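Subject: mismatched residue count in predicted assembly?

I count 1444 residues in my input, but I want to confirm that the predicted structure covers every chain. Input:
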Amino acid sequence: MKRLLSLALLAVLTLPLMAQQKRQFTLEQLIYGGTEYWNYAPEYQQYGFWGDCLVRLDVEAAVMLQDEKGKPVEQTLFTADDLSAAGFGRALNIMAATFPDGAKPQALVYTTEGTMLYDWQTKQAVWTLPRVEGELEFCLASRSTAFERDHNLFVRTADGRDHQVSRDGSRELVYGKSVHRDEFGISKGTFWSPKGNLLAFYRMDQSMVTDYPQVNIALPNLEGKDGSRIAQLEPDKYPMAGETSHKVTVGIFDPATDRTVYLQAGDPTDRYFTNIAWSPDEATVYMIELPRTQDKAELVAYDARTGARLRVLYTETNPKYVHPVHPITFLPWDDTKFIYQSERDGYNHLYLFDVERGEQRQLTSGAFVVTDILGFNAKDKSVVIASHENSPVRTNFWTVSVKNGKRQMLDGGEGVHSGVLSQGGAFIADRWASPDVVRRYDVLNVTHPERLRTLHDCPDPWAGFEVPEITGGSIKAADGTTDLYYRLIKPTGFDPAKKYPAIVYVYGGPGVRNVEETRNWDARGWEIYMAQLGYVVFVLDNRGSSDRGFAFETATFRHLGDQEMADQMQGVAYLKSLPYVDADRLGVHGWSFGGFMTTNLMLTYPDVFKVGVAGGPVIDWRYYEVMYGERYMDTPQENPEGYEQSSLLRKAGNLKGRLQVIIGYNDPVCVPQHSLAFMRACEDAGTQPDFFLYPGDGHNMMGRDRVHLHERITRYFEDYLK
Amino acid sequence: MKRLLSLALLAVLTLPLMAQQKRQFTLEQLIYGGTEYWNYAPEYQQYGFWGDCLVRLDVEAAVMLQDEKGKPVEQTLFTADDLSAAGFGRALNIMAATFPDGAKPQALVYTTEGTMLYDWQTKQAVWTLPRVEGELEFCLASRSTAFERDHNLFVRTADGRDHQVSRDGSRELVYGKSVHRDEFGISKGTFWSPKGNLLAFYRMDQSMVTDYPQVNIALPNLEGKDGSRIAQLEPDKYPMAGETSHKVTVGIFDPATDRTVYLQAGDPTDRYFTNIAWSPDEATVYMIELPRTQDKAELVAYDARTGARLRVLYTETNPKYVHPVHPITFLPWDDTKFIYQSERDGYNHLYLFDVERGEQRQLTSGAFVVTDILGFNAKDKSVVIASHENSPVRTNFWTVSVKNGKRQMLDGGEGVHSGVLSQGGAFIADRWASPDVVRRYDVLNVTHPERLRTLHDCPDPWAGFEVPEITGGSIKAADGTTDLYYRLIKPTGFDPAKKYPAIVYVYGGPGVRNVEETRNWDARGWEIYMAQLGYVVFVLDNRGSSDRGFAFETATFRHLGDQEMADQMQGVAYLKSLPYVDADRLGVHGWSFGGFMTTNLMLTYPDVFKVGVAGGPVIDWRYYEVMYGERYMDTPQENPEGYEQSSLLRKAGNLKGRLQVIIGYNDPVCVPQHSLAFMRACEDAGTQPDFFLYPGDGHNMMGRDRVHLHERITRYFEDYLK
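Triage response: the counts match. Full output below for your records.
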């Protein structure tokens, strides 16, 4: 008996040791692009709706999980084999299937041949459309496809006929592509009318824009593009802040007449045409128009048939900037009403508009940001939104009554949710996570939130691994009042008696945030890896970052870097207050705006940070582009001091610690000139940064290069911070 | 007494300690471009000849030191103030003065206004010529100047008239400039006839050559060239091995008629026209012509007035290559005879030719290289040469009798000499050094070598500094028979009981050698610096390097890198045999061909070399240019295995140690594609080199950047090899 007892005691005593013998992560497991990354990511599931019926879309089958009333079922609608048997090539991944009509047993699916509308009762194709090369946008309503060929825009109608929209397209005269460098929420250049009879499209004349001379080196296969092995020039039109910008116009093409009218918006010089939207009856096109100064936004209606400018429905001005990124959204039950989103009261909120009489009333309000409109519930006359109302670090779903603005929360109120609303508006397929929930798939009932049904609770993919402790919290900003949210990762095998080196990971720029109350507080895989190597990792969303409202974001206006750094230094003070952080071994790392922050922190606080790795950094805002740059900095002509003070070229001589700058050599966003000029400035100032580049890569490393990159970043901290 | 004795003993014992307290060098003192470099370089003096009278040319005065018989005098001929008083601007540095006519008290000097022929007896200008903008070449005989304006070639005659030679000059059609990428000894593109009546010039059509897209980033002054701050494309015609090359022709311009005739050399496609020379009577132009294969050289005479091809005087072929770099030189006493230099017997030697009858006889022979013709002594009918006859690591002066080939050594026979021969051929102003002589200025008597007179023995500029021990020696090459010369630098404060890290500095390519029996065995300042930091430095001239004859140089033919590395590994074996060398801490560094060698050694012997720094490396000979590349490698089409085997892209996955590649970002010699492609290859192979660049710099860093560079190189070895 005694012997048994002591064995049991031994077992208890060895538990901590066994915990330390848990598995260790590799970069191949933690970094997106790693060979084992997907083996250790939370399970991925895809859900869609056929009308209000919930369907799980697997790789090989579509399975209905509940009917339109929400009653659980389990019925396979069709399989990949069914689709392949329909005689239009082999079925591709079913996860991309959609259900155009809740009243018909039909799914829009993709095969090796093209697009097919498939009837799972007859097991036949309703129709098929062969793949169109250069496809830009397909319109289901008319089965027309906009596509590009040799720089020109074409439309292929359902009858198979090709209609040439433009004839003078070139590298300089661009048709049907995203414009304004993807700012203002723009991500494409074609916009089908609701019934698919007309195509609105962007035309961009960038002949007057200076080329940035990007160079494509011939890669190790020793063969360049044109049969030569010599490096090739690949010029890219890049309008830098304060320089001549491109001119955009909007055309409306009618395949029935093969004619185009252009919206009569006036001289396009130094103007932005954004957020294109159609009226449900296809008669009117709306856009939001801004002057280059970005201090005014006008919602303007145009006659789609003639291009005539009809009226200005709304004008918003702000001495800093107005930043519309959401096209108007019509109420499905009333073609005369739409929702406009604006930050004018300090937070992004919804406003109800009438197509004739303009603004009607504000639908949501409060010191929180509405982030998304999922859709509408026509029965209840409500709009379904996502917002940060519960907490700036949470995203939850709510209904908002269009009649009285009353809001009702739809999910459990915790964590960060994303989802898709059923066509009828009755259900949401909800994917969410929190520090306590790895990932959970729920289906939410929009009218009866209490009838929440959990579809799948994902197991922890990191079971068996030694995972560091990750906590979230908040500190005060440098202004003494604003709450800033952070996450803190302790080294694995944490010993409170030890002193650890600490790394600040930072982004800090507009439109992005890093800390959310989701799985691991949204920690990136590399942070886990560094914790495993014995580093404290700290991430703080400073003022200027996203989703905290206009005042928070614009605290940095015209002087990018200053307030952001002041806040990050609050984070550093907090870090230094932790007894287990070695204040003599602080590092910093960030990419893009975070590269700007990293470099800036290394140069501004040379005695605080010993080691930094700055990726794709902005070095001088004069080298950045017009749309983003001038929004936050005005032009160099208007704000010379701001540009001068924020230029890191001027601070190159301050470098004391070890700073490695890393770029994608073909970065079209933050062009190589930034980092190359910084190297030159350091050389002239007699300081010694380190530098690395990835030829052929853009603003971010992807795939295998991403693993290589993080091995590199890790090595640098291991070489100099440990 | 006992106390005194012990004090004396103490003094003896502390001597080594005191020696260690000598001054330490900084990079600013040791690196060319450093702020104090010139304070610690051997004293520089400039000597010239007025006829056979020796003149010392100081910054502020010209002082005659001996008369035409060699009798010592000390007479100031003129001062800078004298020149400035002549009414043609302020005198520039007198060191550049020359004496056109031994019979007249006249010096050709330069002032802020231009060129002046000054008479120091009348203290007046004989004539003056204002500076010509874009000057290419001035001809004293006719006082005509060839110059460039807007890509076109002009001649300004003594009467001040401008004659336009070309009208269609452009970036692609180049007049009056060096051609064939400065290979074959070409360094300029204009060649005045002896009396200055005619101008031979190169015309190069490179419109068919691919552009390499060099990019000039706007530098930190934030202003680019064209008033834009955006990076500028600066394309550079760069014919890569095996690709389409340029076409060169040679014109003869006559300012008297304003007409040009072109030499009727036939189709210039894939041909090299080199070593242009005039007959003394201006009637004939000679060039050496090679096909692109470089396996044949023809010396061809042309009628300068008509351009007619007169005759081929000599043809030399070699299955490897023929490499003429010396234009023919006429005997001053016989206009029908000239000297041709050839490696055809295995070493560069002199051959006497007759303008009508061709080759007469070989003038020098033996297993040594003649490096230079200084000139002639007409009285003795001898030619004055420099050669390695005494030793491959020495350069000495000799006379060679044109009649019987008899040679007589003119200097003391040690060290490395350079000098200038007096116009009459009686004296040489000799500057030389050896491991025992910092720098000495002698005047040699060509007909009476025993009458050597030392003018100045330079004091050691490093007195008071702790200078490492530098020795020279030889080992056997990998072939077991060939002697290879090295220098070895021990760490300062050397302790034979210690183990030191060692760095191999290497070049190893054709046309260059690093080890000469001169001051410090030609050690570079950085080597001294590294010795001071505690490194052994070793430098070995492997087979393939210069001045050892054709077989030695061509041991590497078609497979650059292989034999060179085999020899360097012999050096490594020797290093490892030294008891004080730590074989686990070997580094390697080199630039250009030495960068190729460094990278190759790191990749081929990853377990031997722990740290390397490769500057401006050739990575793949397919990326190098036609003239040099195809001489040593043939074309990629002819020698695919050789190119493939020597490509470092293929070995990128072998990297184990730390390798930093450093380039001038605007390197026009070894274009950035080399190193960028290598980075890409390493990224693809999963290895981690380091990389750095100097925007705006070319193939070598100069000025301040050179100090920055060596600080950087040093830091890398200190970080990883120490």
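The longest helix of chain A spans residues 2-20. Marking this ticket as 'not a bug'.
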